[in-house]
Amino acid sequence: NAGVMQNPRHLVRRRGQEARLRCSPMKGHSHVYWYRQLPEEGLKFMVYLQKENIIDESGMPKERFSAEFPKEGPSILRIQQVVRGDSAAYFCASSPEGQGTPLHFGNGTRLTVT
Amino acid sequence: AQSVSQHNHHVILSEAASLELGCNYSYGGTVNLFWYVQYPGQHLQLLLKYFSGDPLVKGIKGFEAEFIKSKFSFNLRKPSVQWSDTAEYFCAVNDYKLSFGAGTTVTVRA
């Protein structure tokens, strides 16, 4: 059973470009979470999605960031017009039932904005 | 929203020493508590979890944690660390979504 798959592993973008981060949850998991890890900081919750629904996006910056988890295909975290401050590791996690259940994490995507 | 505080940013110790990492959370209701570990270059892995029952929880690789409800704490312990325990350790609390502490980097010297 494959784990949570994230790609790309590393992503380099120039300021102003768009970044698209993909996450395929574990088989049978319908709950997806995105976290951001900044240098010297812990993991910050960004958004919680179930299939086709955003459940909680309280951790998402109000502008330029969006997330989706379509009926078919991976979850996508999209960052438009990236800035240097967006450079971070972005982790996706999935769980089968949501609240209270342990999360399984992917290897993360390290975004570098030049 | 939950806030999770981990007491130490960086801990350095020698092999065979005992390890204790502090973790406190803010919310007093029903919570689920976790410790995750991130080895260098790898993703987060679950060390142990507490949902209910015995407040002393045993996890993988000889780790254990004690939930003390009155202190809102969930401290992680290992009696004798190994070099391979060098990693970053995150405490997390889940009352709706998982909230993480800032992490503690543990360096074990051989």
Structural commentary:
Chain A is 0% helix and 49% strand. In chain A, the strands form two sheets. In chain A, strands 2, 4, 5, 6, 9, 10 and 11 form a seven-stranded mixed sheet that branches. A four-stranded antiparallel sheet of chain A has the order 1-3-8-7, with no helix packed on it. The N and C termini of chain A lie far apart (36 Å). The mean pLDDT of chain A is 91. In chain A, strand 9 (88-95) and strand 10 (104-105) form a beta hairpin. Chain A is mostly beta strands. The radius of gyration of chain A is 13 Å and the shape is globular. Chain B is an all-beta fold and 110 residues long. In chain B, the strands form three sheets. In chain B, strands 2, 5, 6, 10, 11 and 12 form a six-stranded mixed sheet that branches. Chain B has no helices and twelve strands. In chain B, a hairpin with a 4-residue loop joins strand 8 (64-68) and strand 9. The A-B interface holds A 3-4, 33, 35, 41-45, 48, 56, 58, 91, 93, 99-100, 102-108 and B 1, 4, 6, 32, 34, 36, 42-46, 49, 51, 90, 94, 96-103.
Give a quick precis of the structure.
The complex is a heterodimer of chains A (114) and B (110). Chain A is an all-beta fold and 114 residues long. Helices cover 0% and strands 49% of the residues of chain A.
Q: How would the global form of chain B be characterised?
A: globular
In whole angstroms, the N-to-C terminal distance of chain B is: 40 Å
Q: Secondary-structure element sequence of chain B?
A: EEEEEEEEEEEE
Model regions low in confidence, pLDDT < 50 over at least 5 residues of chain B = none
**Cα-atom Rg of chain A, whole angstroms?**
13 Å
Q: How many strand segments of chain B?
A: 12
One letter per element, helices H and strands E, the order of chain A comes to EEEEEEEEEEE
Report helical residue fraction of chain A.
under 10%
What labels would you give this structure?
heterodimer; A: 114 residues; mainly beta; seven-stranded mixed sheet; four-stranded antiparallel sheet; 0% helix; B: 110 residues; six-stranded mixed sheet; globular
